[in-house]
Fold these 2 entries.
Entry 1:
Amino acid sequence: MKADLVVVGSGFFGLTVAERAAEELGLKVAVLDRRHHIGGNAYSENEEKTGIEVHRYGAHLFHTSNERVWEYVNRFTAFTSYVHRVYTRHQGEVFPMPINLGTINQFFRSAYGPAEARELIREQAGELAGTDPQNLNDKGIQLIGRPLYEAFIKYYTGKQWQTDPKDLPADIISRLPVRYTYDNRYFNDTHEGLPVDGYTAWIERMADHPNIEVHLNTDFFDEQHELGRNAVLGQVPVVYTGPVDRYFGYAEGDLSWRTIDLEEEVLDMEDFQGTPVMNYPDEDVPFTRIHEFRHFHPERAYTKDATVIMREYSRFAEKGDEPYYPINTADDRAKLLAYRDLARGEKSVLFGGRLGTYKYLDMHMAIGSALTMYENKIKPHFSGGQPLVSGGVDE
Ligand code: FAD
Ligand code: UDP
């Protein structure tokens, strides 16, 4: 096959671009991935002994309020009615997360109504009232007061980011809601669920098109490969979803990433913790949380003889580790601006996805941003001759 478009990376960003270009424009698309499977970090497989679906790169929960994305993903999979809820185990006691009226009343051994609970938290957060917190520590105390902050946020965040919360940006904590009701849903989105027959079946349907050819175990920077950078650049348009610093040979320095280590264990019991995710916010426990995968699919008839759990440990990524979460220090942001300038100068190469833009993107955001790149850049180029120019790595 002679490709009209080369897509580097078969995660949701790359596959969405490839699917649209093949299906709507009839282009021949070559998709490269250096891993042995498609799907990027959303890849899942059934654990050998138990048949339980395990998300290989950490638990993935799909949720979106974007109607365009919801319509698009439903072409490839149906979703279960799964609703994500998380519990947290502090000093031998289990509380609901995110912090809600149930958490507050259990923690203070009280029966406050919403207004009384608000008043209590206002008093407890009084030490930082009226200030504009610049770091996560102060923001956390201002949001929920020091006792709840120290119990549920301070050490969890320290473990997860391997950084003192005083040195982290305040906005990380804004992702987590605080509710003065008993609503303990983790996400606020309109649509939520898990793919009925698994992530890999969904991903495979996206790639299953006569015009799409997938090349696994293929690194774009392999100089010998017929679809590697040397052979392709300047010949065929490229959508690149790998790490942007790697593309430019780390010329502006390494961007910093957090990675996670996942320790899987198969236990001879039907049920270990009774829920999909249990957080561990205490300082003396080294992992951040435990996932138990059977609970993501209560509708499936999984074995009753065994269960699969995964402990999650967080740390800074070194070269060779999988980059998972952008750390985004001031230093990183300066490097990113320099990479964006370089990206603007790359003719016929578009940068996208989590690694290509150095942005934390949930799946629905990666898919939404790929649909936008397709509509605004790829389609006008192939159907109307518009030059294919990157707006930088910030599509
Ligand atoms: P990726 O999935 O990272 O795909 C990029 C692909 O490019 C990879 O397959 C990689 O092998 C390939 N690649 C890189 N360099 C090269 C190269 N040189 N040559 C060839 N191939 C290359 N989102 C949610 O919505 N809900 C969740 O609960 C959720 N949980 C997450 C948990 C973790 C631990 C992580 C890391 C992410 C989570 N996400 C979640 C985010 C989700 O994984 C991303 O939104 C999604 O993977 C983005 O897709 P992508 O295509 O941008 O990147
Ligand atoms: N967080 C926390 N305690 C918890 C859960 C979350 O302190 O029990 C903080 C932590 O700093 C985390 C942020 O809230 O980075 C956002 O949480 P989320 O679950 O969205 O994080 P993710 O797992 O997606 O990084």
Entry 2:
Amino acid sequence: AQRPNGLLRARYGGRNVVTMLPGAGIGPELMGYVKEVFLKGGIPVDFETVQIDPKSDNNDDLKYAIMSIRRNGVCIKGNIETQSLDSAIFSRNVVLRNELDLFVNIINVQSCNNISSRHKNVNVIVVRQNTEGEYAMLEHEGVKGVVESMKVITKTNSTRLARYAFELAKNNGRAKVTAIHKANIMKLSDGLFLETCRNMSLNYPDIKFDDMIIDNCCMQLVSNPHQFDVMVMPNLYGSIVSNVICGLVGGAGLISGKNYGDHYAVFEPATRSTGSSIAGTNTANPIAMLNASADMLEHLGHKMHCYKIRKAICETLNENKIHTPDLNGTAKSSDVVQNIIKHIVTYT
Ligand code: ADP
Ligand code: MG
């Protein structure tokens, strides 16, 4: 079950088994669409579904989910909620990424021509640190009314993240890597991050390297996103920048995100939204989760099935123009899914 790059995948009798974590909000209905598309498309992947009770005061469900991913190597997930009032129960999404050492989150944002959006022809890859920085969850109230929160940046994680960004740029024919930071204020932590990226760039003379401060970056993204190619950044900036870019090209319902470590791969919608307010209304855009499932198929080596899903999504959005309300359309989630299936079954 070992892939050349070291990432694991379970395979029994020609079929892959992957872990499915539906999570909260619109997660379960989106997973239902993924399963329907896989079934109708004859895609040889079985799902091991693990439900995580948001209200639970222990992490037994989460531990089981993590064990399942360790066994299968691959997971598709919705956003997991943590409603426990016990402050010792941390965000389960964060714990899962940390336990599996999924040190990088990658979002490839490409705009779709026939969707109403702020900008056309955007094509940016965000490479985000996924396990440390502001997400260290080391907070305490040492003195009443004074809360401290630790931001952790390590040379080890910054180095492997920077290497990942430059390798990705090289292997995808990208011209430029931009490091995003706030090293003018956080001189030590973001300073280390920036210096590590700059040092890594010396190994890649064919790829241009520059850097930008996060606040200017947000302004530049909104006014001229075309200047960006590959962007690399610490965890919290990555969260914000990912959401800004997704917003530029059509919102939370379109783009998928990939989480990788040395051993495991987890696929999900890029903005990691829960979508509680629209759950159960048949209005959620199913595309982001279907794109995540296509990324997963690519990772598993099912290139043809991946291609078919992406092609059917493209035809549904661009030619048939079947759009859910988030894209100013009137279609139901199920209309989009049925149209995608209609295409997939005709491809030979
Ligand atoms: P978070 O979980 O970070 O709070 P939300 O669930 O509030 O994020 O999502 C942000 C916004 O994006 C909400 O308005 C939500 O309805 C919308 N949204 C998220 N996912 C989708 C989707 N798949 N289709 C349509 N709208 C979505
Ligand atoms: Mg919300």
